[in-house]
TrEMBL record:
PANTHER family: ALDO/KETO REDUCTASE (PTHR11732)
Keywords: Oxidoreductase
Superkingdom in the source lineage: Eukaryota
Gene3D superfamilies assigned to the protein according to its UniProt record, in alphabetical order: NADP-dependent oxidoreductase domain
Binding site for substrate: H105
Transmembrane parts of this sequence: none
Active site: Y49
Name of the protein in its database record: NADP-dependent oxidoreductase domain-containing protein
Length: 303
């Protein structure tokens, strides 16, 4: 089983990275420090997680050289017209002068207003989405920060095929990855195929089904866990690596952090079971976008 994958830039990316979303302040630093101690060399961050300062402190405390760690971060929606400004904040928080990978967090621009700098709403309570904003303009800025060398590779997150097709019309640099929710209840086969044809790798967020996961208690996944003598979480992490996807499990629990760094080979028949669970009726997303289904997100459920 590969321990790393190759991006379309030629750079290598560890197959398993630690997710840092929803890790509370105070917890995330400890989790990152432990992860680096037990061998993780890949961290998935974002400005909107509002904990990059602590992640940066933990990286420095770990003593692991910067160049040995693959670090990803993401432009937040309210910064889509100011990508370079968002990047500067992240670099400062993480205490580094470059990122290995920088992603557009969602294909949505939110306009900051007096209601909030990060989650602005309109007077009627709806999200302050800029519907006239063209994502191609955000991508152009991503290409610029990539050329500046402050970011070694660029990609997107939460992009469905229609959005990618729109971007494709003007991209000069092909995204290196698309980071999306992936697990057996939401395998996104069509998106995976589309991206593979363009040389875009998928990164799996919420690979375990997030908090109060329906997947960890699924009898079919439990049966595979018993067969391979591993935990259901290890089955879910291994599933992604076996299908060629980068996987970003999150945990703040030391023993789980250690466990989640292991992926095992899964036989073709068992992979077929995991790959067809959604087609057989177990279809569920655990992270529902906040920006409204009128933006073309509906097709995610049937991918
Ligand atoms: P905790 O952080 O308390 O350890 P996902 O990566 O799909 O978003 O899932 C994250 C959730 O799964 C968190 O609630 C995390 O709990 C839990 N989790 C992480 N690793 C494991 C594991 N090996 N076994 C069971 N639950 C896990």
């Amino acid at each position: 089983l590969p321990e790393s994958f190759k991006l379309n830039t030629g750079a290598s990316i560890p197959a398993i990275g630690l997710g840092t979303w929803q890790a509370k302040p105070g917890e995330v630093g400890r989790a990152v420090l432990h992860a680096l101690k037990v061998g993780y060399r890949h961290l998935d961050c974002a400005l909107i997680y509002q904990n990059e300062n602590e992640v940066g402190d933990a990286i420095r405390q770990s003593g692991v050289p910067r160049e040995d760690i693959f670090i990803t971060s993401k432009v937040w929606n309210t910064y889509q017209a100011n990508v370079a400004e968002c990047l500067e904040q992240t670099l400062k928080s993480l205490q580094t002068d470059y990122l290995d990978l920088y992603l557009i967090h969602w294909p949505v621009r939110l306009v900051p207003n007096e209601s909030s700098a990060l989650f602005p709403v309109n007077k009627d309570g709806t999200r302050a989405v800029d519907r006239s904003w063209n994502q191609q303009d955000t991508w152009r800025q991503m290409e610029e920060v990539c050329k500046s060398g402050k970011v070694k590779a660029i990609g997107v997150s939460n992009w469905s095929i229609p959005y990618l097709e729109h971007l494709e019309k003007t991209w000069k640099i092909i995204p290196a990855v698309n980071q999306v929710e992936l697990h057996p209840y939401n395998p996104q086969h069509k998106l995976k195929k589309w991206c593979k044809e363009k040389g875009i790798l998928l990164q799996a967020y919420c690979p375990l089904g997030s908090t109060s996961s329906p997947l960890l208690g699924d009898p079919d996944i439990g049966a595979l866990a018993e067969k391979y003598k591993v935990s259901p979480a290890t089955v879910l992490i291994s599933y992604q690596v076996n299908r060629g996807c980068i996987v970003l499990p999150k945990s703040v629990t030391p023993a789980r952090i250690e466990q989640n760094l292991t992926a095992i080979p899964i036989g073709a028949e068992d992979m077929a079971v995991l790959e067809s669970m959604a087609a057989n009726g177990k279809q569920q997303r655990v992270n529902t976008p906040l920006w409204g289904h009128d933006l073309g997100f509906d097709d995610w459920y049937n991918a």
